[in-house]
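User: I'm putting together notes for a lab meeting next week and I want to include a structural view of one of the chains we've been expressing. I don't have a solved structure, so I'd like a prediction I can at least talk through. The sequence is below, exactly as it appears in our construct file.
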Amino acid sequence: MSDEVITPAEPPITPFVQAYHHLRDLIIAGHFEPNFRLTEADLTKLLDVSRGTVRSVTAKLAQEGYLTSEPHRGVRTRDFSIEEAISILEAREVLESALAAKAAVSATDAELEDLTDICEKMAVADRDKAASDYSQLNRQFHRQVRKSARQPTLESFVDALHYPLVMRQYRDLTTVHPRQSSLSEHRAILYSLKTRNADAASAAMRHHVAAARRALLINVDEKNSSSGTGSNTG
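Assistant: Thanks for the context. Below is the predicted structure for the 234-residue chain, given as structure tokens.
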């Protein structure tokens, strides 16, 4: 009997899968304004697929909460009320703190090294006032913590919150980003993970996400006083 290991072939990337990921990535990246109407005609050109594929893609994204569907009027990107935004941030606070506690126990040494490297790069981005780089590294840090927790159900709940869409809508681009204490908060999370202290990791993560929520509330209150909304968190 041969000892050769047969690796299953990767499933083909269909036009639907490609178009789905393309449009989803554009939405997450903030390519469209909140409550922006997407027509089938525009999407067939943008995604280079048939109208049938567009309908399937937008139906899936609407089901997942990235879009809202309007009968006979197409779809629109999500537009979150301030109440929805606050609720999402509160839920994220609970879920991410639980994941951090799990990560303190289950993260591998290699994963902790990756988190250390990310944190060091965040310090450089913070020093250089590279806000875009800092935001990207911030997302990597949180993704790695969630991955290290090895709790796919909890992780899926965080993904379902659509936190990046809320931040795109409410971040105040006129204020300094990141927040002044953001880097020290990430360092506190990292230290708790490296010392394998689950309670401390949970508390550090909860403090970090709560600080982001409070910044959102402060900036929204400030903007509301002048008939606008915005936030700077992270």
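A couple of points you could mention at the meeting. The chain is about 65% helix and 5% strand. The longest strand covers residues 67-70.

User: Perfect, that's what I needed.
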